[in-house]
Each structure stands twice: as C-alpha cells, then as structure tokens.
Amino acid sequence: MLRRVQQFHCQFRTNTFTFPQRSPSAGSLPEAPVMSLQYLRIFNYIDAIARSGSIRKAAEGLFITPSALDRRLQDLEEDLDATLFERHARGMRPTAAGELFLKHARQQRADYERLRTEIAQLRGLHRGTVSIAASQALAFSLFPDIITRFRQANPGITFTVRICDHGSAIQALRSFEADLALVYNAQPSADINQLLEVEQRLCAVMAADHPLLQQPGLRMRDCLRYPLALPDSSLGGRMLLEAFFARSSLTPNVVLESNSFEMLRNFVRGSDAVSFQIQVGTALARAQDGVTARHIDDRGLGTRPLTLAQLKGRHLPLPAMRFAQVLREVLAGDEAQA
Fold this sequence. Notes:
The chain has helices spanning 2-15, 37-52, 55-62, 66-80, 96-122, 142-153, 166-174, 220-223, 237-247, 261-269, 318-337, and strands at residues 17-18, 34-35, 85-88, 91-94, 128-134, 157-163, 180-184, 192-200, 202-207, 228-231, 254-258, 275-278, 291-295, 304-311. Helix 6 (142-153) links the parallel strand 5 and strand 6 (157-163).
C-alpha cells in the first residue's frame, strides 16, 4: 500500500501542474505552469481533516457539507488505493499513508504560495504573509517592535505569530505552519537549518521602583534577598536557574511559579518580588508599564542560545527571507551590545 502511495507521490508532481495544449511556434516560449485549483482544494480538504480530527469540524471550516467532504476523501483514497485516515470514536487520525500525503500536500501548498509571492514581487506588488513560531519571551518587546518597523517599510506584508514552546515551534516548521522559528534553547535536528544562534543571558525583572535598582551592580545573591517569581519548568530559563540554585548555598524564597511571562511581570509590578527572563525578552533600556530589567553579573549563571531556524531544503517566500535578514541584523546587533 505504501509503495502505491509513494508512486503516486512521485507522479503527483507532474500532475499537479496543468500545461496548455498548444503547438509551439518557432521561437515561442512555453507558458508558465499553473497549479490546478482542483488539487489545491484536495490539499486543503485533507489538511483540514488532519488538523481538526473530524469530518464534521473540517467541513464547517471549509463551508461544505460533511457528506461532500467524506465523498472527496473516499474518492482520493480509492484513487490512491490507500486508507489515509483511521476512523475512531474520538475522531480521525492519519495513517502512515496519510502522513506521507499530508507532507507532500503541505510542501506543494508552501511552494505554490512562494511562487505567487515571487511573481507578485516581479510585478511590483509588495504583499504576502510571514508566519513565525516563537518562544513566549519574544512576545513582549522584540516581535512587536521589529514587526512594526518592518511593516512601515513594507505595508503590504502581514504576519502570523504563534507563541509556543520550542518543540512545538520546530514541529510547526515541519508541518509548514511556520516559515521561521525563533526559539530559546532548541535542540539541534538534522532536518532543521539554523540561520543564526545568539547566546542569551538571564536578566532580573522587577518593579520600576525596586530597591535593587539603586545599587551599581547586580548579583544573584542580591536577588535572593527578595521573594522570587519564577518561570516554571516548561520555560527554558528555568534550567539555568535550577543549575545555579543547586550550586548555591542560599535558599531561594519562591512565592510564585508560572508558565506565563505576562503573569510574572504583572506580579512583580506590584510587589518587591524579582523574576527572571532572557535578555531579548526584556526592555533593558527603559521601564515599561512599571516594570524594568537589569543584567545579572554572575558569570556562573551560564547562557543558552536563541536560535533562528527554518526547515532544511524549504525555499522561503521573499517576505519571510527579508524578515529573516532583519531578525539576523537585529539579534546580531543585540549580541554585540550585550
């Protein structure tokens, strides 16, 4: 069965494009291939079923009837001579053949969108969408600031930003849900191309009128004199803190743990507690909303990399390529100033 699907996978690339049937005249050039709308619809149908896990839910989002969508799926499975989904009481799950088809379909859709963007750029139409998966720490100041500046120069470009842990961000690259991923403490992977790595130090986050701001330097032992509001174990910075606490003779007074940096910032704003975040996620140069941050001078605290990545072998749309270049310049500049 899988051999049959793999054969279809190879053949489908030639069937995906519709070429005009025209006798070429001397000196004429062949017309550019155009993605068949029928195949695009099939890709959308199968992808929607996989993401929702249900014929009914997928049909609602596609604005067709469940029976019509089920019929399209059955026709495709008959054509492939393969079952693409396992049907369970709790929903539908892709089979091995279904996963193979989904990978092919998502690759084809991504390539088609890139082609449309590049053609639009040739016509002088500056439009397109950049999709990014990123660590939570970047949502506070880095991405809002950079996206605002990028759109001032490129007002036709829109953005989709998905905030998630580093594992989910890398998976979003693999499933073509994201063009780029910017994640903290990501593990190397053979299918992921690392465009840039920037080492990140931890910074102390506190209220804008905190007593620690009055002293010239800041060490971890100074922070430990106050209550601590810590990121939980799902966030990368917690690993650095745990390693430091294990070596320290001081006992931290942890009064709050959370998987939300917004929660931690709101908590320290109204108290004398201290929290921690990587430097790219803080506004070190200024206080914002009653909260500020300072570098911690302890060398023993260690660093971890912030990684800008894309799926290896994937050709990015031009807007994503340009935004990646902007990110590289900004992050490299921040590293030089750190």
